[in-house]
Design brief:
This protein has a four-stranded antiparallel sheet, with no helix packed on it. It is built from three helices and twelve strands, in the order E-E-E-H-H-H-E-E-E-E-E-E-E-E-E. It starts with a strand and ends with a strand. The protein is 21% helix and 34% strand. The chain has a single domain, classed as Sandwich (Immunoglobulin-like), CATH 2.60.40. With 203 residues, the chain is α+β, with helices and mostly antiparallel strands.
Length: 203
C-alpha cells in the first residue's frame, strides 16, 4: 500500500518512478526587519574594526575570569564596543576609538600617559610611579598603534619602570590616521589593566 500526503515534515508522493518520500520544503525566511538590519550593520562594523586587533584582544581579555577562550574574549570586546563605543544612528554609524577596550582588568594603568609623533616614530611616555595597592615596576607595557584603514597593527613592549616607549610607524602610508592605545599586564601575563586610548595622529 502506498501513501500520498504529508505527516509532520515528511511528504509521500506517487511519481513516474513509483512511490517516494521527501522532506517538506522549508518556508522561505522572512525578510529582515529594520531592527535586524541595524543590528547586523553594527556587528559587521565592530568585527571589521576589531579583527586586526584579535591577537591583542585574546591576550587582554582571556586573563579575565569570564573570558577563558578566544571566542569568549572576542565576544566580550565586541559587546563592549556595541554597548559603549557606537556613535550615531543607523545608517550613519561610527565607532568612537576612545571607548574601545583592548584589555580589561583591575591592574593599575599608566598614570599621566601621553604620546607625541616625531617623524615616523610614535613616542609614548608615562609616570612609572606606583600605588601601594596595584602595579609593579616589572609590569609589561604594550603600546599598540593601529591603522584602521589599512588594517595594520604595530606594537612595542617595555617595562612599566622604563617610563617611555617608541614605536616605528615608518611603514604606514603617509596621510594614514593612526590610533594609539596602551595595555598593561603583570609579570605573569594573567592580570591586566583596562586599556587606555592615548589619542590619534596622522602619519
Amino acid at each position: 500500500m502506498t501513501y500520498s500526503g504529508s505527516l509532520g515534515d515528511i511528504v509521500g508522493s506517487n511519481g513516474p518512478q513509483g512511490f517516494y518520500i521527501r522532506s517538506r520544503p522549508s518556508k522561505p525566511a522572512k525578510a529582515p526587519t529594520p531592527k535586524q538590519f541595524e543590528a547586523r550593520a553594527k556587528l559587521s562594523m565592530v568585527m571589521r574594526f576589531l579583527k586586526p586587533l584579535k591577537a591583542i584582544i585574546y591576550r587582554g581579555f582571556m586573563g579575565n575570569q569570564s573570558a577563558k577562550t578566544r571566542i569568549a574574549a572576542m565576544n566580550a570586546a565586541a559587546s563592549h564596543v556595541l554597548n559603549q563605543a557606537m556613535v550615531g544612528a543607523y545608517p550613519d554609524l561610527r565607532i568612537d576609538p576612545a571607548k574601545v577596550r583592548l584589555s580589561r582588568g583591575t591592574l593599575l594603568g599608566l598614570p599621566q600617559a601621553t604620546f607625541r609623533a616625531q617623524g615616523a616614530s610614535v613616542d609614548v611616555s608615562w609616570s612609572p610611579a606606583l600605588t601601594p595597592f596595584s602595579g609593579h615596576a616589572d609590569d609589561e607595557v604594550t603600546v599598540v598603534v593601529y591603522n584602521p584603514q589599512e588594517k595594520t597593527v604595530l606594537a612595542g613592549v617595555a617595562l612599566r619602570s622604563a617610563g617611555t616607549l617608541a614605536v616605528d610607524a615608518s611603514d604606514e602610508p603617509p596621510g594614514s590616521e593612526l590610533l594609539v592605545y596602551a595595555c598593561v599586564c603583570d609579570r605573569t601575563g594573567r592580570k591586566f589593566a583596562n586599556s587606555q586610548f592615548l589619542g590619534r595622529t596622522v602619519r
